[in-house]
Specification:
224 residues, mainly alpha, 10 helices
């Protein structure tokens, strides 16, 4: 089996495990909904204010929801010995990391992006703002996942390392959050063309995919 076939098999394996066990994907959506639903109660009935900061609320909720289950990205395989087999496989460890992070994004980041237009109703977004925010989340959430993978690799051998992981990766997610909110807001009333921050966001995701994959693989090798 070649490298591409191995990556596809690992992605399919993690997707099947996620479907059987459930957990992080559904929990991320529920957490996302809870934050988006609670913020309007805290701000009051000002629909203009809600619609103005709605994209920021959705993006902040996505950042926090991405952290749900991220600590188990490599920890479950570390506990049952699967990670040792993957590390000793003939394919590069970077390919293993890429496959696992891709599967994690498909079960967490992608559902968040697809559900964001529905949740946008709770913060009084119009159709254009909903579409723009959903597109930015679709482009930007991979960056959040790959950045989080580095922290997950560093804390793979630590039981209940979720808090440590959050402290490590949340500051690194701030640039993605800034450009994600900027792109979402420029879709409706920004002075900057929508494509400009969106391309920066796409660039951040590509950089995070390369750097995050290499860094996570190095962290897993270091922890052996």
């Amino acid at each position: 089996m070649g490298v591409i076939g191995t990556i596809r098999a690992l992605v399919a394996r993690d997707l099947v495990l996620a479907a059987r066990v459930g957990g992080s994907g559904a929990l991320s959506l529920v957490f996302f909904l809870m934050i988006v639903a609670l913020v309007p109660f805290a701000l009051g009935p000002d629909l203009n204010l809600l619609s103005r900061i709605g994209p920021a609320i959705l993006w902040l909720s996505a950042v926090l929801s991405t952290l749900i289950g991220l600590d188990r990205l490599f920890q479950a395989d570390e506990e049952d010995g699967s990670l040792d087999l993957m590390t000793g496989a003939p394919v590069p460890l970077e390919c293993v990391v890429l496959a696992k992070v891709t599967a994690h994004w498909l079960t967490t980041g992608l559902p968040l992006a697809l559900a964001s237009p529905l949740f946008g109703l709770l913060v009084a977004l119009d159709g254009t703002a909903m579409a723009g925010t959903a597109l930015t989340l679709l482009v930007g959430t991979p960056a959040l996942t790959f950045v989080g993978a580095v922290g997950a690799a560093l804390t793979a051998s630590i039981r209940r390392g979720g808090l440590i992981l959050a402290v490590l990766v949340v500051p690194l997610m701030i640039p993605t959050l800034i450009f994600g909110v900027s792109a979402a807001q420029s879709a409706t009333a920004g002075t900057v063309p929508f494509a400009t921050p969106l391309m920066v966001l796409a660039g951040l995701s590509l950089i995070a995919a390369v750097v995050g994959t290499a860094a996570a693989a190095a962290a897993l090798r270091w922890s052996e």
